[in-house]
Amino acid sequence: MRIIGIDPGLRCLGWGVIEVDGARLKAVANGLCRSSGSDLAARLLSLHQQLTKVLVDHAPDQAAIEQTFVNRDGAGTLKLGQARGVAMLVPAQAGLPVAEYAPNAVKKAVVGVGHADKRQVDHMVRMQLPGAEPEGPDAADALAIAICHAFHAQSAGRLSQAIKAAS
User: Fold this and answer.
1) Taking the model in full, what pTM does it have?
2) What backbone torsions phi and psi does residue 65 show, to the nearest 5 degrees?
3) Which of 7, 19, 122, 141 is catalytic?
4) Three-state DSSP class for 62?
5) Catalytic pick from 19, 122, 138, 141?
């Protein structure tokens, strides 16, 4: 199973694709989609086009995205929400299921604590995906989101098997 993790951002959207084989995780690719354009609509379109190409190039089976947190700047939160909409739309258009995870849940799954900093996330991503070289903090976060989804999917699969065995 291939999972794409997406860390939404208007200026810079991070993405990371991993392959899951049982309990084994392997980094496939990661990168950054940097928006371009003079207005918001052009920047969102730029992100859409770049992320669509990533999905075509790497053919993930599932997608996971970080939930938006609300900050003090309402306008900034709204713009981030619009970029997040693009990040959810692209995999949905490709027919992929899209899971959402809170930032603290991602950090807890990957680092073990919900308030880890970006340096700790990057370190643990590299530990769990040997050979991975994240292109930047947003790409490392995206790989962490994919890892978090892999852990949740594995747990759900084990729970489903236990329920079937008990019936």
Assistant:
1) 0.90
2) -135, 150
3) 7
4) strand
5) 138
pLDDT in tens, the chain (167 residues): 999 999 999 999 999 999 999 889 999 999 999 999 989 999 999 999 999 999 999 999 999 999 976 667 778 888 889 999 999 999 999 999 999 999 999 999 999 988 899 899 999 999 999 999 999 999 999 999 999 999 988 766 544 454 455 55
Separation CA 69–CA 95 (nearest Å): 26
What are the DSSP calls for 69-131, one per residue?
PP-S-HHHHHHHHHHHHHHHHHHHHTT--EEEE-HHHHHHHHTSSTT--HHHHHHHHHHHSTT
Q: Is 7 assigned a catalytic role?
A: yes
Catalytic residue among 39, 57, 61, 66: 66
Annotated catalytic residue 19: no
Active site residue 57: no
